[in-house]
Prior knowledge:
Layout: H1 22-42, H2 47-50, E1 53-59, E2 62-67, H3 70-78, H4 80-89, E3 96-101, H5 119-130, H6 135-146
Parallel strand pairs: 2-3
Antiparallel strand pairs: 1-2
Helix pairs in contact: 5-6
Amino acid sequence: MQRDVPASHRSGHGPQPITEVGPVAALARKAGKLEALDRALRQTLPSPLREQVRFANLRDDRLVFLASSPAWASRLRLQQTQILAAARAIGANASSVTVKVAPLPPPDPQPEQSKPLSPAAALHLKVAAGSIHDPELRAMFLALASIAETTDSSSSVTP
């Protein structure tokens, strides 16, 4: 038995992005605001300190920061007046700064660099290409073999 869904809840254009759905949309907006506030507030800090702290939240009238060590937390507390002035200048109603010591999240991993193709691997690809009857696949093997690292061109042997 099928229930009628009110027209206001139907979506005739397929699925919606998760960031546009109810509570998730509100959470995504809050995360975006916090990230923008983090960037704006940390830009006012001196360079070495800027990399060691992160803005975490605006709770009531309190700015909450995370610092990577107690030493960085102390340095950030010394900047409290400057941070509060910057927060008020960008429209954040804050009257105090709280700093918690917590390890910062690791930086985004760099994409793994591809390793060069060795001359021996290129030779094997050329040999394999010679036994392939499909011309398109053979061309792919030969193209792959052609990008091999040529450290010593005299040692490469063409089958």
